[in-house]
């Protein structure tokens, strides 16, 4: 070139020439699903059911699940409600008809999704990275976090493989020591005070990362994230900014089930898939953060800043959520439909969703606790649990229990831990009658 192009023109020319216009953010997704009842075209003709967010029967009707079964495993690979399915169909069919399809609008679809997620979390859109899952989000964090010599990492014995493996790999690359604390011995009697005290006891003067899980997938215990954040805020007083302990949270079993936003939690990073309790498109997720300068990107971003730096022969500036968001071709029909998932849950109301989830969980725990051959593992107190309810049945292995429950038209799951437990998840697709059905079938398992 005799003369350099302006930055925006350069980016637009490059993305268009590479066939990346849709994926790199030069178009906009359709807006979030309306809160008012509406019927949308369904696959194979007909329409999806009208949506009345104030009516729980109408909410459940938005899902295409088999009504013959009481569904307590919807959080595993969550079904999408009608507005999300309709958005996926729209984008998928348009892309199949025209590979250069771009939704109409004035901003990028990624930005539309970030803004929808930010409204839901009470955050700024610039703090949100887009991922494919909780595991990817945690991997981006623990692969990219910058550690100085002598800094260490603190986690718990109760976290999932994604956290433990991510930190093991971090230790292998950096030599940092990773320590694990035990938050409780018996999950049913877990207490917020003991959990906070355990973290406090494990904290060192050079602890840089504190990695915890909001709701344990192993037991259903809900960790007091806000109290841990307050503890770290006190511990960080007087520390150099580069030595400040960062609170990183695997939020997947709280995100969408509980109403807390990032200001309520007080953490530094929150990673979650949006295809579980939020009932968003499968293969989607987010990481929210407020300390992105502490994280180096580990996968090339397709952001404008990344392309501009590459084409101008320089490194990008300080890390941002957008720079940490992995580039590449995605299942764009799913990513672009994330906004409808946030809109769907917002229409119902985050507080109403939490109340419903916990009321059903409380009902289920009460029923299971009344069965002599059942041992409840999840705390009875709502403030120490969310929608997961875990238990064991005397003389019946968890996998066998799942099979026998299925024969009784109740769908449950097992925890992927050793030892394993029988696990239920109460959610917006569950009714009180189905909770009672599950209790009755469990009572007959001997």
From TrEMBL:
Reaction equation(s) it catalyzes: (sulfur carrier)-H + L-cysteine = (sulfur carrier)-SH + L-alanine
Position of the signal peptide: 1-24
Record key words, sorted: Aminotransferase, Pyridoxal phosphate, Signal, Transferase
Superkingdom of source: Bacteria
Aminotransferase class V domain mapped to chain residues: 112-410
One family name in Pfam for this protein: Aminotran_5
Known cofactor(s): pyridoxal 5'-phosphate
GO molecular function terms attached to this record: transaminase activity
Keyword Transferase: yes
Annotated SUPFAM superfamilies: PLP-dependent transferases
Similarity section: Belongs to the class-V pyridoxal-phosphate-dependent aminotransferase family. Csd subfamily.
Name this polypeptide is given: Aminotransferase class V-fold PLP-dependent enzyme
Species of provenance: Nonomuraea rosea
């Amino acid at each position: 070139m005799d003369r350099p192009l302006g930055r925006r023109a350069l980016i637009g020319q490059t993305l268009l020439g590479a066939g990346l216009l849709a994926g790199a953010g030069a178009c906009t997704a359709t807006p979030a699903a309306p809160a008012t009842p509406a019927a949308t075209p369904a696959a194979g003709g007909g329409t999806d059911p009208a949506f009345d967010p104030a009516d729980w029967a109408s909410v459940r009707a938005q899902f295409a699940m088999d009504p013959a079964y009481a569904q307590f495993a919807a959080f595993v690979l969550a079904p999408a409600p009608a507005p999300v399915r309709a958005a996926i169909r729209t984008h998928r069919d348009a892309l199949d008809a025209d590979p250069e399809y771009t939704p109409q609008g004035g901003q990028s679809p990624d930005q539309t999704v970030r803004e929808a997620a930010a409204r839901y979390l009470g955050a700024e859109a610039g703090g949100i990275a887009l991922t494919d899952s909780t595991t990817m989000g945690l991997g981006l964090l623990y692969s990219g976090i910058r550690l100085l010599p002598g800094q260490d990492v603190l986690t718990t014995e109760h976290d999932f493989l994604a956290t433990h493996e991510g930190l093991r790999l971090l230790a292998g690359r950096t030599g940092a020591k990773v320590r694990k604390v035990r938050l409780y011995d018996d999950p049913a009697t877990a207490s917020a005070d003991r959990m906070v005290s355990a973290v406090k006891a494990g904290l060192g003067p050079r602890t840089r990362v504190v990695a915890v899980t909001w709701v344990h997938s192993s037991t259903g215990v809900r960790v007091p994230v806000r109290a841990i954040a307050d503890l770290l805020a006190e511990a960080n007083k007087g520390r150099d900014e580069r030595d400040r302990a960062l609170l990183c949270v695997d939020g997947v079993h709280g995100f969408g089930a509980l109403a807390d936003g990032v200001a309520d939690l007080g953490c530094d990073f929150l990673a979650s898939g949006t295809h579980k309790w939020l009932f968003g498109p499968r293969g989607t997720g987010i990481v929210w953060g407020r300390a992105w300068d502490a994280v180096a990107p580990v996968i090339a971003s397709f952001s404008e800043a990344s392309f501009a730096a590459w084409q101008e022969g320089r490194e990008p500036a300080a890390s941002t959520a957008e720079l940490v968001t992995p580039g590449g071709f995605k299942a764009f029909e799913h990513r672009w439909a994330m906004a409808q998932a946030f809109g769907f849950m917002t229409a119902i109301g985050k507080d109403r969703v939490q109340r419903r989830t916990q009321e059903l969980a409380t009902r289920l725990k009460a029923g299971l606790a009344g069965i002599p051959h059942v041992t409840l593992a999840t705390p009875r107190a709502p403030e120490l649990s969310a929608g997961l309810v875990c238990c064991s049945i005397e003389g019946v292995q968890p996998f066998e229990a799942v099979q026998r429950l299925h024969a009784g038209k109740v769908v449950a799951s097992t925890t992927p831990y050793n030892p394993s437990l029988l696990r239920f998840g109460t959610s917006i697709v569950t009714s009180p009658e189905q909770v009672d059905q599950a209790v009755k079938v469990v009572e007959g398992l001997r």
